[in-house]
Amino acid sequence: MLPDLKTAQAELELAGTLNPGPWTKHSENVGLAARNIAEKVPGMDPNRAQILGILHDIGRRVGVVSIPRHIVEGYRYCMARGWEETARICMTHSYPLMAGEWDRDPEDPEEALIQDYIASCQADDYDRLIQLCDGLAVDYGFCILEKRLVDVVRRYGIEDNTLDRWNAFFAIKEGFEAHIGASVYQFLPDVGRTTLLCPPPWKPGKT
């Protein structure tokens, strides 16, 4: 189960009043990118894709939090409302390698919860689509995947599996392009213009 589009948009607007920042425009754009791409993929529901994109970061409503915490907060928030599909996306959207993300024991209970959850499921087209669109959308529009991946590294640093994660993002992109028979960039408004914009990377704690 998931909320309707109007409810999802209202939830994001409310969350933006609780924790103002560029993350809400990013979330809107993830939803738009997901809708535009899903419209071109046989068997996918564009409305469902947009809702999942809008709410993928809803855990940030509680304030400036770590990556694991915003994931778990979003999962709990959606589950409390009976939105199992959006709760799943909250859990999976940051992990393109899925269970392959970890080769160590979790460092805290929230990370343990995420690992256990992801180990119990297989990524479907909606998981992969939101993972991809999270890498194509910024608060000021859309950009090529390379720019977004570098932006994230500038904010959070390089990890041991960064190259594997980058390759996973490109594999997802190429998979959707094979279904569509065209570049996903064709369906992202003004992607060429916004890719050339170079604002400083946003960091947690800044609005």
Write the layout of secondary structure elements.
Elements: H1 5-18, H2 23-38, H3 46-55, H4 67-80, H5 84-92, H6 109-119, H7 125-134, E1 137-138, E2 141-142, H8 145-156, H9 162-180, H10 191-195
Antiparallel strand pairs: 1-2
Helix pairs in contact: 1-2, 1-3, 2-3, 2-7, 3-5, 4-5, 4-6, 7-9
Account of the 3D structure:
By secondary structure, the chain is mainly alpha-helical. It is built from ten helices and two strands. The chain has a two-stranded antiparallel ribbon with strand order 1-2. β1 and β2 form a beta hairpin. α3 packs across α5. The longest helix is centred in the last third of the chain and has 19 residues, at 162-180. The N and C termini lie far apart (32 Å).
* Alpha-carbon Rg, integer: 16 Å
- Measured by DSSP, the beta-strand proportion falls in under 5%
From the spread of the alpha carbons, the general shape counts as: globular
Give, in spatial order, the strands making up the sheet with the most strands.
1-2
Biggest sheet layout: 2 strands, antiparallel
Helix content: 55-70%
Short summary:
The chain is an all-alpha fold.
Note the main attributes of this structure.
207 residues, mainly alpha, two-stranded antiparallel ribbon, 10 helices, 58% helix, 2% strand
